């Protein structure tokens, strides 16, 4: 898949008023967190400070994001993961469907929120709690993707091969992101994700 210029929400049905309000609150919380972390550092930024900057209560922050780590690891593309995967052409190889999904999300975030992506990558390298939470959330996402791929391919919901594939793809995305961050974000991240996924097809190049 080539990088997509559109936002992850572009092909999603229009939201109702309630959903738009909830999305607005999510975005306000995320933006407040990223600004405060850029100014003060991750450890020095508290949920209470984020809530005050976003003009919501701390309980509202936790209603949208169970942990502080979730605020910096979540973006709006997460809302459309399942619908995008289900919209892929029938008969497309599962790995290629996942490639489209992953590289599209990365490309969109780099275009629309580049500083968010760069800050997230730095935190993954610098903050063990963020890196650990990323591993947990990727496992949860892998389970969701497994169910969708099972539906698309007519396999059982707990099919081992599907579970292994989705877990491997999420692991490839994680390692590509860390590789990018560890090298001062100088490379093309979308190309690195393609390269990581190509490795799942044929193993490391000689």
Automatic annotation (TrEMBL):
InterPro entries: Homeodomain-like_sf, HTH-type_TetR-like_transc_reg, HTH_TetR, MftR_C, Tet_transcr_reg_TetR-rel_C_sf. Residues 23-83 form the HTH tetR-type domain. Residues 46-65 bind DNA. Pfam families: TetR_C_14, TetR_N. Keywords: DNA-binding, Transcription, Transcription regulation. It comes from Streptomyces ficellus. The lineage of its organism: Bacteria, Bacillati, Actinomycetota, Actinomycetes, Kitasatosporales. This is TetR family transcriptional regulator. Residues 1-21 are annotated as: Disordered. It comes from the Bacteria.
């Amino acid at each position: 898949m080539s990088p997509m210029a559109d936002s992850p929400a572009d092909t999603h049905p229009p939201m109702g008023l309630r959903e738009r309000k909830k999305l607005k609150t999510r975005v306000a919380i995320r933006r407040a967190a990223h600004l405060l972390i850029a100014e003060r550092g991750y450890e020095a930024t508290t949920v209470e400070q984020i809530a005050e900057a976003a003009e919501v209560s701390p309980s509202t922050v936790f209603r949208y994001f169970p942990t502080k780590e979730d605020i910096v690891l979540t973006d709006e593309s997460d809302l459309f993961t399942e619908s995008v995967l289900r919209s892929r052409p029938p008969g497309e190889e599962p790995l290629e469907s996942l490639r489209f999904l992953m590289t599209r999300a990365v490309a969109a975030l780099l275009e629309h929120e580049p500083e968010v992506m760069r800050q997230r990558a730095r935190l993954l390298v610098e903050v063990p709690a963020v890196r650990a939470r990323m591993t947990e959330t990727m496992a949860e996402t892998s389970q969701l993707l497994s169910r969708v791929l099972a539906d698309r391919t007519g396999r059982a919901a707990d099919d081992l091969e599907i579970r292994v594939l989705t877990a491997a793809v999420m692991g490839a995305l994680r390692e590509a992101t860390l590789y990018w961050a560890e090298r001062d974000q100088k490379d093309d991240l979308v190309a690195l994700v393609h390269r990581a996924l190509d490795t799942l097809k044929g193993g490391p190049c000689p």
